[in-house]
Amino acid sequence: MSLVSTNPILADSVLTSAMRQVDSSSRVCTVSGIINKTAGCVLLAAFSGAIAIPTVKAFPSALWIAFFVSLAVSIASIFLVRRSPRMAASITVLYSVAQGFMLGALGMLLQGILDAQKISVPGGVALQAFVIVVALMLAMLTLFRLGVLKGGAMFQSVLSVVTLGIFFTFLIAMVMGMFGASVSFLALPTEPGGGTTAMIGLGINAVVLIVAALWLIIDFRQVQDAVTAGAPASAEWYLTFGLIVTLAWIYLEALKLVFRIAMMFGNRK
Fold first, then answer.
1. What pTM does this model have?
2. Residue 166 Cα to chain centre, angstroms
3. If you write DSSP's letter for every residue of the chain in order, what string do you get?
4. pLDDT digits (tens, 9 = 90+) for 154-180
5. Interval 238-269: pLDDT, tens
């Protein structure tokens, strides 16, 4: 099982174009406005994820339906927001619900595998993944505020190339899997234990998680630039969408990382 999503939403050229398309008003974009909208969408995603748990327990096939719906919504949302930023509010809400349901269902599945193997994870995989997301977000915000990482053009270019490399690697692995040729170290383990393959998979997972977290630097930079430029308040939803895409990716990779570590080193009940 391998899932990847990326965040091309807040590229400089796309953001500049979006600022021309959003409705202008006397109100301007503010950091507090973006924080409030992002927090609201995170809570909405969490609520959707909570609903996913009993739903998938009652209807196991809902997990795969959620995965494909989430994938379709993700692709459609990115293209729609890029083409029509005025739709950002409704698209962001829909995206948050879809991703929340899928991630909640996935977290329940991974927790179920660990429970079946009698491997204990303090607080559960979902809680530990959430803690990792919060820790990485605070770390990236600190690095950005201190000026250690500024999210400039070169930083964004390098990160974009690395992200595309990750995307195509997992895409090729997915296609190979359809023909029965799986890439074992990219797939999540189904049996406990370590070994070379498991260690490579853990290392790749950690690298992808760091790459996902680094996109927050670019998100913060674009938010700062939009606020400084006096962008209209309606741009807050556009910027919020980019942040939610990044946070969803980080949470996904954190879930996978916690699961891998538990399968390799976790204590049996």
1. 0.90
2. 14
3. --------TT-HHHHHHHHHHSPP-SSB--HHHHHHHHHHHHHHHHHHHHHHHHHHHH-TTHHHHHHHHHHHHHHHHHHHHHH-GGGHHHHHHHHHHHHHHHHHHHHHHHHHHHHHTTB--TT-HHHHHHHHHHHHHHHHHHHHHTTS----HHHHHHHHHHHHHHHHHHHHHHHHHHTT---TTTSPPSS----HHHHHHHHHHHHHHHHHHHHHHHHHHHHHHHHHTT-BTTHHHHHHHHHHHHHHHHHHHHHHHHHHHHHHHPPB-
4. 999 999 999 999 999 988 888 887 787
5. 999 999 999 999 999 999 999 999 999 877 66
